[in-house]
Amino acid sequence: MIENIPRNTISAIFSQALHEGLIREEDTAVLFHDFNYLASRIAYLKSCFPSDTLHGLAIKSNPLLRILEFTRTMGTCVEAATVGEVTLAMRTGYSPNQVIFDSPVKTEADLRFALELGVHMNCDNLTELNRVDSLLKNITSNSTIGIRINPQIGVGAILESSVAGKYSKFGVPVNTMRRELEDAFANYPWLTGVHLHVGSQGCAMEMLVNGVGVLYDFVCEVNQKRTAKGEQPVAIFDIGGGLPISYSYQQRPPRMEDYVAALRERAPGLFDSSGHRAQGTGLRAQGSESSSPRHHGTMAPRQNGETGEVSWRLITEFGRWVFVNSGFTVSRVEYVKRDPGINTAMIHVGADLFVRECLNPTDWKHEYSILDSQGKLKKGLDDQPYNIAGPLCFAGDILAKGIPLPKVEEGDWLVIHDTGGYTFSMWSRYNSRQTPRILGWFEGTFSVLKERESLEDLVGFWE
Ligand SMILES: Cc1ncc(COP(=O)(O)O)c(C=O)c1O
Q1: What confidence tier does 296 reach under pLDDT thresholds 50, 70, 90?
Q2: Is the pTM value of this prediction over 0.90?
Q3: 133 and 161 share one domain
Q4: Is 2 part of a structural domain of the chain?
């Protein structure tokens, strides 16, 4: 599995787009998505986990409808962080039992909406569980329900995306609120799932494994008590996302197959093939044969016959790992300023498309390449490094500082690599720039995934 799309491939795809007239004068910046690469990534992900694992791709990383339609045809599920994202999933053909709804701040209306629709829902806190309990007295729901638990195993290298420290705004902490959690599992028989997410990028594979291990141990204890009382065990185990990826040709991120092997060693029960049955969980991977009834109260996972084993339903929520490396962004270089000691390439995307990179450049970096006006890769290095500056009206609108690049000239194209996720989904409206054209490339053919925003649509946003 290649990690980062090679520079030559990017140059070839871009040149083809230019040649086919897909980059018009007004397309000062264009985003590209390589569907061949995306498909290979998803196929590899699926091959690493047991076949009935539900892969709930994190919509927040890439909510483009054409992308969601494509990932659905590849048999994935989706993770939705808001009612808006649930709606995107429904619009692109996902069925409710292929949606994992995780919003950290759900209103009463959000909870009702999710329960009536029948999605799998992870509650964030104990008060939310109480609200769900009250609602379930009046709603017949097909939903399965879990609780997000913070395994409190520490933070990774990037603080703003680490969510498993002693304190986190997400979930219920497993150590400091253990009694309350045990009570919740004792009081709510409909609570049959657990959910964790340790962090995004910046967390070593060992941390992610440790988080799953801590939660697995806790759930095994809960299940002992439940089965002793003849109650349904907890059997939906959502491990979240977070496996880091490579943002440069030099980085060697952990391999998905090694992650799964380490999880299997730490929490073997979750991977016990005899326990991997779809029955009773209500959740469904596309193409799965399960047709189990999904009524509230009877849909909860069951014990495996006389052995007492749990039929685990494993869920993943990868976003970055699936999407980021499959896309890149190209902007025309409008001007080059040559100051003593530093050049500045002035381009057409900045903190509007690269919020994290501009505000926290230490933690968020990309590879860059320079293509000439015809899309040919430029080689060599200029004698001064470059700042890459966006078009917005604030001094922090600088994507990267002091980057060694080939000699950059007006009319060249600057490539920002690995922008297939957490890029367009984080678009900021500051300064009212039009969103760029977005192209998909599949088996040598382009399609427009999203048109460049018109001035009329832009005005409409502020209406
Ligand atoms: C609850 C949850 N699940 C999944 C993800 C996806 O994480 P990643 O894109 O790092 O795989 C996130 C990211 O913030 C998240 O908050």
Answers
A1: very low
A2: yes
A3: yes
A4: no
Q: Are 189 and 55 in a shared domain?
A: yes
Ligand 1: residues with CB < 6 A are 58, 61, 79, 102, 197, 200-201, 240-242, 317-321
**Residue span of the structural domain in which 300 resides:** 49-318
Q: Say if CB 32 and CB 439 are below 8 A apart.
A: yes
Using the mean position of ligand 1's atoms as its centre, give its distance from the Cα of residue 17 in Å: 32
Query: Both 130 and 16 in a single domain?
Result: no
DSSP strand pairing (172-173 vs 342-346): unpaired
Choosing from 55, 57, 60 the residue with most ligand 1 atoms within 8 A of its CB, the one to mutate for a pocket test is 60
41 lies in a domain? no
Say yes or no: 269 and 403 in one domain: no
The model's pLDDT over 108-153, given as tens digits with 9 standing for 90+, comes to: 999 999 999 999 999 999 999 999 999 999 999 999 999 999 999 9
CA distances, 168 to each of 64, 149, 152, 159, 393 (Å): 29, 10, 8, 11, 34
Picking from 183, 152, 188, the residue whose alpha carbon sits closest to that of residue 170 is 152
Q: Same structural domain for residues 327 and 457?
A: yes
160-189 per-position pLDDT tens digit:
889 999 999 999 999 999 999 999 999 999
